[in-house]
Specification:
The protein is α/β, with parallel strands linked by helices. The chain contains twelve helices and twelve strands. The structure holds glycylglycylglycine.
Length: 324
């Protein structure tokens, strides 16, 4: 039995997490869920966006399933990643509808602990300043992770994304660490692009990418762009992995425009749960659910409006669950 901390967060978080546990509950695997609060609503109600009790529950669990972050993202999801020492955020951009989006399939390996996301901002007489932190240790660690991931999964190329022509010291260090790590993996091709060029290449040449390794902010932005390549934010899961903890969340946010309507696409969160199953060593169940999701989307009968259907979040989840 696995102890799972469930943190729905804000907006559509509640709906997509409920849909996901509906699917998980049909597996031959036992889960003990401990629900915990965090987010904008939590801040309104308790005065804090991320209560100590929630952090404790997350730390004591075997894995965390998170729904969606809203305006308090920095104090909730970014802080949780730190509290759980999850140094990598894996964001797979994979097309489940190749006939519509082509065979896009690449992994974004996002550094999860530093960059502008350290939240070191201050007001100044002129306006504001934010500090960007890039260390050799974290850059080496994430580049090593990316190359090892490529090797372990049979990928042939790793691309570093940075802006080292302008941010010469910080992104320059990231680029240097990347090529030092690349030397240890001569069998894997390595190249690098500026982040602005990458934003274009993802649209013009998406099939050229296999593994992207990048810093925190660029990884966040490029994964939303990646979602746009394969059907939208409802399709992309993510896994935050550390030496001791795993936190699994869809790439999308709280989507206040559709929250409460029961029409959010649950696929990103269910696929995040598949990444959680892999992390827990339940890969057979993960592949089973992924296959069913592809089947359900191909059928196109019981899918949410963003996928061309009229089903609710929960109806789509129950249909997926019924096929297990
Ligand atoms: N881009 C979708 C979104 O709004 N995600 C919530 C968010 O801002 N998360 C912060 C992060 O992933 O670092």
């Amino acid at each position: 039995m696995y102890n799972i901390a469930v943190i729905p967060g804000d907006g559509i978080g509640e709906e997509v997490v409920k849909a996901t546990t509906t699917v998980l509950d049909k597996l031959d695997v036992e889960f003990n869920y401990t629900h915990a609060i965090a987010g904008d609503k939590c801040k309104e109600e308790t005065g804090v966006p991320l209560p100590d009790e929630t952090i404790q529950i997350a730390k004591e669990s075997d894995a965390v399933l998170f729904g969606a972050a809203g305006e308090t993202a920095a104090d909730v999801i970014v802080r949780l990643r730190h509290e759980l020492s999850t140094f990598v955020n894996l964001r797979p951009v994979k097309s489940l509808q190749p006939e519509k989006y082509g065979n896009i399939d690449f992994m974004i390996v996002r550094e999860n602990t530093e960059d502008l996301y350290i939240g070191d901002e201050e007001e100044t007489p002129e306006g504001a300043i934010a500090r960007k932190k890039i260390t050799k240790a974290a850059s080496d660690k994430i580049c090593e992770y990316a190359f090892k991931y490529a090797k372990d999964t049979g990928r042939k190329k790793v691309t570093a994304v940075h802006k080292a022509n302008v941010l010469k010291i910080s992104d320059g260090l990231f680029k240097k660490c990347f090529y030092e790590t690349a030397e240890k993996y001569p069998e894997i091709e390595s190249n690098d692009f500026y982040v602005d060029a990458t934003a274009m290449y993802l649209i013009t040449n998406p099939l050229d990418f296999e593994v992207i390794v990048t810093s925190n902010l660029y990884g966040d932005i490029l994964s939303d762009e990646g979602a746009g390549l394969v059907g939208g934010l409802g399709m992309i899961p993510s896994a935050n992995i550390g030496d001791e903890n795993g936190l699994f969340e869809p790439v999308h946010g709280s989507a206040p425009d559709i929250a409460g309507q029961g029409i959010a696409n649950p696929v990103a969160t269910i696929l995040s749960a598949c990444m959680m199953l892999d992390y827990l060593g339940e890969s057979e169940s993960a592949r089973r659910i992924e296959d069913i999701i592809v089947e359900v989307i191909q059928e196109g009968k019981i899918v949410t409006p963003d996928l061309g259907g009229t089903a609710s979040t929960q109806e789509m989840a129950e249909y997926i669950a019924s096929k297990i």
